[in-house]
Amino acid sequence: MIRLMLADDHVMLREGLRSQFSRSPDLQVVGEAGSPAELLGLLPRVKPDVLILDLNFPEGNGIAKLAQIQKTCGGCKIIVLTMYSHVRYATHALDSGASGFVVKGAPFEELIEAVRTVCRGETYICRTMRSRIAAQKRRGRRPDVLGSLSQREFEVLVLLGNGLALKEIAAQLGVSEKSVTTYRARIQQKLQLKNRAELIRYALESNLVE
Q1: CATH numeric code, 2-137
Q2: Whether CATH 1.10.10.10 fits 145-205
Q3: CATH 3.40.50.2300 region(s) of the chain?
Q4: What is the DSSP string of 15-69?
Q5: pLDDT tens by residue, 181-194
Q6: Is 20 exposed, middle or buried (0-12, 13-18, 19+ CB in 10 A)?
């Protein structure tokens, strides 16, 4: 039996996933969380084999908490299930410890395939994202300058795009406000953006925020 935990702030989505998983005799949902804080509190007690994690929460984008969640989950596999379909999200999630990446809207069968694949110790990327990564490789270059950002710079860009203040971003990432200011300056330089308004617009146009 594969023990699953669901982390998403939408109750209806969790109910739908739980109902679908109940049809597979080898899969069992043993826990649910609607916020990062609830998730971090439950993980050590529930001890799932696989955590299915959304990245978008009202309390802040979960992409900044992936590393912390990965340390807390006690060796369980993490599958990111998200609406964000930019290649950079997939690479960041996998680099931060996730074993799988599935975009919402993919057939449910792909999510079940992802669960069984990561339990075998393999990495799973949904077909839509695989196609985009393959297209990027065929071009022989990154599709846009987002690829020039470091993981931390990408996190800061996403949080800025979600409207968080520098102090709030510093608290989420566990760094100083001065460091966040430095990251913001580097982002603006790499993306050739002049101010915060342009940063937010860029994040929106790049499908980095909801």
Answers
A1: 3.40.50.2300
A2: yes
A3: 2-137
A4: HHHHHHHTTSTTEEEEEEESSHHHHHHHHHHH--SEEEE-SEETTEEGGGGHHHH
A5: 999 999 999 988 98
A6: middle
> CB of 152 within 8 A of CB of 173?
yes
Instruction: Copy the structure tokens of residue 31.
Output: 């826990």
Rg, C-alpha atoms of the chain = 17
Q: What is the DSSP string of 130-171?
A: HHHHHHHHHHTS-SSGGGGS-HHHHHHHHHHHTT--HHHHHH
Q: From the CB of residue 47, how many other CB atoms can be counted at a distance below 10 Å?
A: 15
Give the pLDDT confidence of 117-148 residue by residue, as tens digits: 999 999 999 988 888 777 666 655 444 577 77
Kindly state the tokens that stand for 105. 């809207």
CB neighbourhood size of 123 (10 A): 13
